[in-house]
């Protein structure tokens, strides 16, 4: 786990409320952006593993995959792979898809 991803571990959906939830989403979004930028021309994707995903979306959350996909679209990514218990893989959303979504 990278140092940036460790930041997300401090953000919990606890009694601290929804503000921490949105902070966690922002940190995750920024991490994915950094990973995609760093890998441009190399791998072209960013894998976020289950321990990080659970910080925002608990395993028992209804419609979890759909919520992760929505998060991706809202932040300019595309959820290209998801396996509960393993990871979610994000890629950059093509610009034309972003224009159609907004």
Strand percentage, roughly?
A: 15-25%
Q: Structural class, judged by helices and strands?
A: alpha+beta
Largest sheet: 3 strands, antiparallel
Q: What is the terminal separation in angstroms? A: 33 Å
Q: Please give the radius of gyration in angstroms.
A: 13 Å
Strand order of the largest sheet: 1-3-2
- What's the number of domains? 1
Strand tally is 3
Give the topology string: H per helix, E per strand.
HHEHHEEH
Poorly predicted regions? 1-15
Helix content: 40-55%
Any idea what the shape is?
globular
- pLDDT averaged over residues: 77
Number of helices: 5
Question: How would you portray this structure in words?
Answer:
With 102 residues, the protein is of the alpha+beta class. It has helices spanning 3-9, 18-38, 50-56, 64-74, 95-101, and strands at residues 46-49, 77-83, 87-92. It has one domain (17-101). The chain is built from five helices and three strands, in the order ααβααββα. The chain has a three-stranded antiparallel sheet. β2 (77-83) and β3 (87-92) form a beta hairpin. α1 (3-9) runs antiparallel to α2 (18-38). It is globular and about 35 Å long. Mean pLDDT is 77; it is low at 1-15.
In a few lines, what is going on in this structure?
The chain has 102 residues and is of the alpha+beta class. Helix content is 52%, strand content 17%.
């Amino acid at each position: 786990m990278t140092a940036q991803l460790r930041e997300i571990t401090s953000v919990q959906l606890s009694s601290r409320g929804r503000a921490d939830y949105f902070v966690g989403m922002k940190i995750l979004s920024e991490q994915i952006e950094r990973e995609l930028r760093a890998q441009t021309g190399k791998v072209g994707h960013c894998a976020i593993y289950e321990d990080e995903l659970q910080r925002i979306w608990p395993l028992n959350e209804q419609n979890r995959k759909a919520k992760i996909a929505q998060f991706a679209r809202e932040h300019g990514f595309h959820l290209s792979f998801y396996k509960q218990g393993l990871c979610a893989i994000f890629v950059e959303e093509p610009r034309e898809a972003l224009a159609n979504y907004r």
